[in-house]
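Hi support team,

I'm opening this ticket because the web form for multi-chain structure prediction keeps timing out on my end. I have pasted the exact lines I submitted so you can reproduce it. The total is 579 residues across two entries, so I didn't expect it to be a heavy job. Is there a limit I'm missing, or should I split the entries? Thanks in advance, R.K.
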Amino acid sequence: MTELRPVTVDELRHLVSERALAGETMLLNMGPQHPSTHGVLRLLLELDGEIVVNCIPDIGFLHTGIEKNMEAKTYQQAEVMTDRIDYMNNMGNNLTYCLAVEKLVGLDVPPRAQALRVILAELQRISSHLLWLGTSSLDLAAMSVFLYCMRERELILDVFEMVSGQRMMTTYIRPGGVWRDVPAEFEAAVRHIVEIMPARIDEYESMLTTNMLFLERTQGIGVISAEDCKRWGLSGPVIRATGIPYDLRKVRPYSGYEQYDFEIPTASSGDVYGRYLVRVEEMRQSVRIIRQALDRLPYGPVRSNNRKFVPPPRSELGVSMEALIHHFKLWTEGFPAPKEYVYAATEGPRGELGVYLEGDGGPKPYRVHYNTPSFANLQAMPILTRNHFIADLVGIIGSVDIVLGDADR
Amino acid sequence: MSEHLEKVVQDFQERFNAGLHCYAGETTLILSREHLLEAVQSLRDECGFDVLIDATAVDYWPEQTPRFHVVYQFYSMAHNLLLRLRVPLDGNAPHVDTIEGIFPNANWKEREIWDMFGITFDGHSDMRRILMPYDWVGHPLRKDYPLGYEEPQFSFNYEEIDRRKPYAKE
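Hello R.K., no limit was hit. The queue was backed up. Here is the completed structure from your submission:
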């Protein structure tokens, strides 16, 4: 083992103010094991008493080399790694990757698969927002909300287990459609969630929205302007809380989102409370989308019929030589993709989730790059936290809703 | 391609001698390294591309000219358009101007590219590693950087492999 070299303040001289070098302000490490940094985020804080003068985020503790690993696998195998990037948005990661692959090779997706993708992506959004609501209010010392949120999140994870066999690492959405059709119990289970959710969201709101303690901790805290949001490339609820209705489901629709009737909730304050309001309203809109998608869920195939990219159904293998050849080729060699590059993006629970995918004519991706919302949003931490108390810093980290697996990949 | 994008593309082809590549409804302009700063500045100020969505790089090793491409993805909120810029770079230790002064969020994205590919950004305010440990050697996403496996030890070669494993020496 090589010896670890100690890090001195000299190396960070360009990041801290003159006062820190003179010893007037204090440098303090927060994390990477701090409970309210939501994973392994390290913040180097420059403090004047209890006030944050500067906050320097340090990421990479959860870097697992997913992009490098994906280059060594075929397109089908590489998808399994996408689940592990943002472990609160597994369906969304699968969906974004599949959209990129489909764009690269020119695959069509049948209507039933499109509708299933929308239902599952919206369920994932609700479950992610529920976890966010639970943990971020826990950071603000509201214990009971967490328990309520976990109760409903469990119902959603049960649906994921029902369709894919896995609660979190689903890999259910595949290039050209979905893995297999949903079981017969699916519709009743999702309808149950859709029926109970509006009243449950009212319940969470009754605990927080007009709660004086909550308002004191959130209003006017962590304010960012619309202009700054654009300059720093922020997306998701953070930019919508400043009044810009930027949502990829509306501006660049995918998977048939243009067919559904829903609104993009915005707030004008740009603070922690605004982001809270946007997310809560988003859950209601997601319920609305799921209800519409369920009502008009078409019958038909759930995978593309293009046998050069999508494996044939098991039933054909015993009777068709062609099907057997395709099955064998697809699972041993994989499918080739052209020497081109594409960018596909979806609206994840945290913001714009994009995949830059480049093929080289072979069966393995030449380069996959995940453009993740947590990475972009974390970069704005210094602006969001400047001149706030340390106690508010915890609320601000919570309100940005970071997932470190998403930032570090 | 929409009218506005067509105008931008034509303008860039004339002014910066940019190459054009279209695939699956996406537009890419290929620029030489000297024109990058000027082009990005005019993209933001004149053409309305006000958001830098993404910046990344691709390694074409063992090719040397160009070995790397730096890829920028821009978005125009007013026109709802996407445009990609690619900048080819030669050699094993390439460098290119930073666009941090125009789009501040390029700071972390360029740090990531430096960390993963070893492309230096001239004029960058904070050129440190971001994802890998600060004392890491090498740039993992380069194609000549091995993926890395632990050698499997069997009873007949256990000792031999154990000797060259880093932890075993201590």
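A quick check on our side: The beta strands of chain A are 26-30, 42-48, 51-58, 173-174, 177-178, 341-347, 352-358, 367-371. Let us know if the file doesn't open in your viewer.
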